[in-house]
Amino acid sequence: MVDEITKQILLIFEAHRAERTSFIDKTFQKALNDLNRRNMLFSSIAAEKFAGLFSDELSWRVDNAWSLIKKYFNKNDLQFKSSDLEIIYAEIDNCIQNESDDLSNHAKRLLQNRKDMDYQSKIDHALNINRNNLNSKLNGELNLFKQLKSTQNNCIGNNTVFISYSHIDSEVADDIAAILEEFEITFFRDVKDIEWGQPISLKVKEGLNDSLAILVIVSPASLKSHWVPYEIGYATAKEKRILPYLTHPSLEVPSYIKDLNYKADLSKVKDFFSKYSFPKVTNGNVKGTSEEIYFDKFTKIMPDLLIEMKKDIEGDGSKVVREFVVLPNDRVLFNSSKRRFTYFENEHSELQNKIDLLEEAKLISLVSTSNTPIYRFSDYFVNLLCQSELNT
Predict the structure, then answer these.
(1) What is the pLDDT of residues 34-53, one digit of tens each?
(2) Architecture of the domain whose range is 290-387
């Protein structure tokens, strides 16, 4: 999957490069003609103007390529390991370097008949500064993206723990189930969740997909089982947490879970679940919807933005404003007869990326895609903000 993604990233950058070559030529020539008219061909102002031209072009290429890459991520609903994202970031970093080198070389070709190389040095300096800024920006966005995917993996379904075992160890599974029930932790168990006549393989996959962790009862019987290794393998591929429980401390643990810390005492299992935070269940309903889990995560990722949103909602005397816009700064005007909240990019780092996360979590929705996109708070998000302990 990572190879395919990096291939797509290269294609996106290459397409932008080809598309923009004639544009940069025309823009450069226009700027050059303008400077000729003003007799500023070899002035420092001219050099700064060309440097800004090439620096802005680098930003345009990278920002637009990154926008397409994010759309590709979301369209294909991709699931990433942290190591995958490191590879992806390295590929984007390499592409930014290549774009910068391409623009520098392009400047040399355009300036080859000019004697004053101050132009080239200033262009290269501007490109270098902008490249570093873009790297920092994208690294921050990828970290946010990584946190979102981690949150998504923790919001998949209602079952929290999948019990993997051999039926010979049913009594041990009963004890494990009793511990989970004691702490109101939801779980999947075949005898409880697979009905007569249902396809076992399909239901097992669904149960694992809907779980945050798989608790494996490792015993002489489960080591000979067909299903237990299969369930562990499937859970590993889905990056689920694996919790091995040994029925006998002297058992030889299979190689595929040998490096995992295990427990061999039910009292320690009980102690673990008494302290570990899992979604709870009451009367068959999970305590903690996916939106609530997202919201809890976002209070750590973007506390300042959520605090401002809460302050705006609570401070609205009419209690009817539910839409907002994102603007670069307070010098940019947004004219509308309808009252809306406004959030500024210069006041919140990586603001648009944070808005994307809120939208993906279905806490807000995009209601207009005009020149200035308009977003609407969901009623549930408004309630979460108002009920939260965020300090306004």
Answers:
(1) 766 666 555 566 667 777 87
(2) Orthogonal Bundle (1.10)
